[in-house]
Specification:
heterodimer, A: mainly alpha, 0% strand, rod-shaped, B: 240 residues, mainly alpha, 7 helices, globular
């Protein structure tokens, strides 16, 4: 089969390279979304730990007050 | 732990891809037979080589997992296969585009090279349902490793069988009998191969880093006895 003229071959070559780049970009975008979710979960956990630490502190203060009384 | 060196690796990969694709379009000469369409060769062939080697690497990591029982090797095996399957999709699509441009057909069923790659790809596509069908994490990892070893051994055997078979239309580019690629084409091809191998390594490290972070968050949540935010039912390997 003779070589395709440049104007016709160009769309196939562009198509192949675009498919490759789109796959990589889509994969990186999916991974970025996953990393965002992990970051959000970490923030939630940090808030949970802080909340619990504050709760423990309040409970300790209450025990201290009742012991003093 | 896995994230160490990810930034320089990502920069090196981006630079290598930019340089190699520049070589493809501004340095490598046009093929006398196929003309401009042959430029697809520089992305299609390295992708297929790296994907097949990635499958074999997945098998090697699975052997290490079965020998040591260390779940980190299972994660390496899983991620290697995962990235290679993605590369496999790119191989099939770029190959179909090249086939349409060169042969006038998107797919040729009586060509051993194409069909054998499709068989390997479909075999690895069953890795996910096979893995996720098992709930017990240890059993899942062990069975998945056995699959990865068997399938990884099949890849080179399949490759040798295809090389021995008579090709109908698919060219044997690296055949020594008719000479190989000219110097500029070979240099460009090797640059593309290195860039795509770097891309594979970067994506594997990227995914392992994400899995490691996710695993640590889950462990932290369990340790704190914190409520889980609508967790996924899929049991992917957890990396510490």
């Amino acid at each position: 089969m003779p070589a395709l003229p440049l104007d016709e071959a160009g769309k196939y070559v562009a198509g192949a390279y675009v498919v490759f780049l789109v796959l990589v970009v889509v994969y990186v975008a999916i991974m970025a979304t996953k990393l965002q979710r992990i970051e959000r979960e970490l923030r939630e956990l940090a808030g949970f730990v802080e909340h619990r630490a504050n709760g423990d502190q309040v409970a300790t203060d209450r025990e201290q007050v009742s012991a003093d009384v | 732990m896995y994230g160490k060196g990810l930034k320089p690796l990502s920069i090196a990969t981006t630079a290598a891809l930019a340089v190699s694709f520049s070589l493809v379009f501004f340095y490598a000469p046009l093929d006398a037979d196929q003309g401009f369409v042959q430029k697809i060769f520089y992305v299609h062939v390295p992708l297929s080589i790296v994907a097949l080697l990635g499958f074999v690497a997945g098998g090697v990591f699975a052997i290490l997992h079965l020998r040591s029982g260390d779940s980190r090797w299972d994660a390496w095996s899983y991620v290697s296969i995962h990235i290679s399957v993605i590369f496999g999709v790119a191989v099939l699509v770029t190959g179909a585009i090249w086939a349409k441009a060169s042969w006038g057909h998107w797919w040729v069923w009586d060509e051993p090279t194409l069909v054998s790659f499709l068989i390997v790809f479909l075999m690895y596509a069953t890795y996910y349902p096979f893995r996720y069908a098992i709930e017990d994490r240890e059993r899942q990892a062990r069975y998945a490793s056995v699959f990865a070893v068997s399938a990884g051994a099949f890849v080179p055997l399949n490759f040798i069988a295809v090389r021995m078979a008579e090709s109908l239309v698919h060219p044997r580019t690296f055949a020594t009998a008719n000479g190989g690629l000219p110097g500029e084409m070979m240099l460009t091809f090797l640059a593309c191969l290195a860039a795509i191998a770097l891309l594979w390594t970067t994506l594997v490290k990227f995914e392992l880093t994400a899995k490691s972070a996710s695993g640590q968050v889950k462990r932290l949540r369990r340790a704190l006895d914190a409520p889980a935010p609508g967790g996924s039912s899929r049991v992917a390997p957890e990396v510490s």
